[in-house]
Design brief:
two-stranded antiparallel sheet, six-stranded parallel beta sheet, 355 residues
Length: 355
Amino acid sequence: MRFTHETLPQRVVFAAGGSPAAVAAEVEALGGTKVMLIASDREKELADPIDKEIAVVLRHEEVVMHVPVDVAERARRAAADAGADILVSVGGGSTTGLAKAVAMTTGLPIVAVPTTYAGSEATNVWGLTKGETKTTGVDDTVLPASVVYDAALLTTLPGDMTVASGMNAMAHCVDSMWGPRADPIDRALAQEGIRALAAGLPKVAKDSTSVAGIEQTLYGAYLAAVAFASAGSGMHHKICHVLGGMFDLPHAQTHAVVLPYVLAFNAPHAPEAEARISQAIGAECGTRTASAGLAALRELLGAPRALRDYGMPETGIAKALGPIVKAIPANNPTPVTYANLTLLLQAAWAGEPIS
């Protein structure tokens, strides 16, 4: 073995039903006295109990998918005007992403409280959108100092969003098998993440209030994000970032649709990854190949199927080809051409069966 692995420094707290006290403890441990609490109006009921336990100087509610640059700039100015010395984000990936955008220019520490399975809370990856272009990057400044996972906050997450967000987490695992910096530790974490997600998601889909199912899924989503932060963004995420920014597609649903097509594309040239994925999903779904396992799980969950269902125009396929080809890492297991990428995108757009 010859590789270099870096583990990001972060404190993680699992506290089912106890997020207000847990967040207050994390804010105190980080020396925060003036909190900017970032939570959209959709998360108001979840954020209010936390608000009561910490010294909030600013409640910021403008949260927009894909973090447009102008939204980020307004949040940065608001943090400075309020004299905030710490950020607390309560919400999904867009909320965490906005907190990261503020931290990137201010250096303020973040306490992240996820309400979906997005995984952004465990990575040092940021994303900003300007016009039709979404730009991502890596900066340790944006890594939340603490994460508080409270399964009770996800008991009201709608079933369709639970499935899409869980598939997004699964995509983190799969991309971590062949990301540009993927190593054996990343693959081990991702494999356990896949197993946990395959075990937890059906329980949550069946009973959205199942704390045990939510915690299993959160555990898998956390491992997925840790693996992804180390391995780097692979083919799947490059495709989804281009499509999401270019056509303003919903983040989690886009990932859920594209994932099986990328897996089928790369698996023939990534035997170790295929074996790990098939073993992890097969343990829960009783299948023998990675693609069959993922297909069985998606069928059980009723996962999103076609990009056209979320507003992507068919003409967008040709428009997206160039930016995607340019973004995909050179070490992708299967060589990418305009021809085979076109076939992949056409199938994902239409939701066609995977041959």
